[in-house]
Design brief:
Elements: H1 2-28, E1 39-41, E2 47-53, H2 59-76, E3 80-84, H3 89-97, E4 103-105, H4 108-114, E5 120-126, E6 134-135, E7 137-141, E8 157-160, H5 166-174, E9 184-187, H6 191-200, E10 205-209, H7 210-215, E11 222-226, E12 230-231, E13 235-238, H8 243-254, H9 261-266, E14 278-280
Parallel strand pairs: 2-3, 2-4, 8-9, 8-10
Antiparallel strand pairs: 1-2, 4-13, 5-13, 5-14, 6-12, 7-10, 7-11
């Protein structure tokens, strides 16, 4: 009887783990089919266009904030747009080069590092609340922290997002701090995880995008230092992306005019990064800025 119970328990645990694995895989590929290429046919005869996105947030948060934008593109173009997530920043680059996605929401740092070698082209970048195509990386601390600036970070525990994100690299490139100055450094997959771990007290400080930090200001997160303006994370295509698809994306997103009520209402459910509209992007924009304040 005891052996039977143990066997049943182990079988149930195995089934639970397998179910979680399958569920996670489903989240990562919103298209539900890895075998399909960037453009396929569906029942209503419109081509399906797959849109990639780097793993800056959890699959749930990405789908919640990015899928409404896909729905908008589907309604404004001759295509059906589907979101295809990835497990890492690098995976999105590979999806573009293999033709599994026709376009992608990429990170600034990984675009600067890869666009020439991987034949990528930026086409659009989102605007911030001031109507400018920039963001800031910020150093955050918890509500009771005594950290007030860069000098206070030495010998502290530091949490960073993906090593392929701009925020994870900015601190060591644009300040006088070195990795050896810290007690410990740990990378996390998502910006939000960095915030959670700092609030929990597991780390003394963290680095994230400004708008992520602002989202948690009510929970006690404090910004103690910020970078100079950084070019906004671009929407990119591959050199082999059909030009008609590229034009359709550009025209639809540049059409958004927030002075008109219909568009102001439209973007309310989009990720905050896209709620202020878009502007054209060019390679000359993506040169790492210097300094901070």
């Amino acid at each position: 009887m005891r052996k039977t119970f143990i066997f049943f328990g182990l079988s149930l645990a195995g089934f639970f783990i397998l179910s979680l694995s399958l569920l996670y895989s489903g989240f990562m590929d919103i298209s539900f089919s890895n075998a399909e290429t960037a453009v396929t046919q569906i029942q209503d005869k419109r081509p399906v266009v797959y849109f990639g996105v780097v793993s800056r947030y959890s699959p749930h948060l990405l789908y919640e904030g990015y899928q409404p934008l896909m729905d908008y593109l589907s309604g404004e173009t001759p295509y059906r747009f589907r979101l295809r997530l990835s497990r890492t920043y690098r995976e999105t680059i590979e999806q573009l080069t293999r033709g599994e996605v026709a376009a992608a929401f990429l990170g600034t740092y990984i675009y600067i590092q890869n666009h020439q070698e991987k034949n990528l082209r930026c086409i659009l970048k989102p605007l911030n609340k001031q109507g400018l195509p920039f963001f800031n990386s910020v150093i955050i601390t918890g509500p009771n922290s005594r950290i007030r600036g860069l000098a206070d970070l030495k010998e502290k525990r530091l949490a960073l997002p993906s090593p392929y994100s701009y925020s994870a690299n900015w601190l060591f490139k644009e300040t006088n701090l070195n990795r050896s100055d810290f007690d410990s450094i740990r990378y996390f997959d998502f910006h939000n995880t960095v915030v959670y771990r700092v609030l929990k007290g597991d780390f003394d400080a963290g680095v994230v995008k400004d708008r992520v930090a602002e989202k948690f200001s009510g929970a006690g997160i404090r910004i103690v230092y910020q970078s100079a303006p950084i070019p906004a994370s671009p929407i990119v295509v591959h050199k082999n992306t059909p030009p008609e698809i590229t034009r359709a994306i550009i025209n639809a997103l540049l059409k958004i005019n927030l002075r008109q009520k219909q568009y102001k209402k439209l973007v309310q459910n989009w990720d905050a990064e896209f709620q202020n509209g878009f502007t054209p992007a060019f390679d000359k924009d993506y040169i790492a800025p210097k300094g901070g304040k």
